[in-house]
Amino acid sequence: RVADRQAATCALSNSAANSRQVALQITAAPGMIAALAELLEGASLWGRDAWDTQSDQDAFRSAASAMGCMDNLSHYPEARKALEEAGVLHVLVPAIGVKSAYEGPR
Prior knowledge:
- The chain has helices at residues 2-18, 20-28, 32-39, 54-73, 77-86, 92-96.
- Helix content is 65%, strand content 0%.
- By secondary structure, it is mostly helical.
- α1 packs parallel to α4 and α3 crosses α4.
- The N and C termini lie far apart (44 Å).
């Protein structure tokens, strides 16, 4: 269920925010980054005034939790590198409206 994935992603996110060791374990776990990226599909619901179904709401919450988890993981250089190598770190930049830390000054 999507709601279960959202709850699990919140737990991962909170753990990553509080432990470098756990963040590195999360990014080293086979398939974990891909699973987080898959949950971001719910981001297509962002900007809508209303969601049509409970499933839409759950997908949006899951996408937001996955985004938060990736943000928390990206605070650690080793985990950030794993996100970059997986090709998912770029989603944080437009989604939260910040300049990429690896773009350098303009």
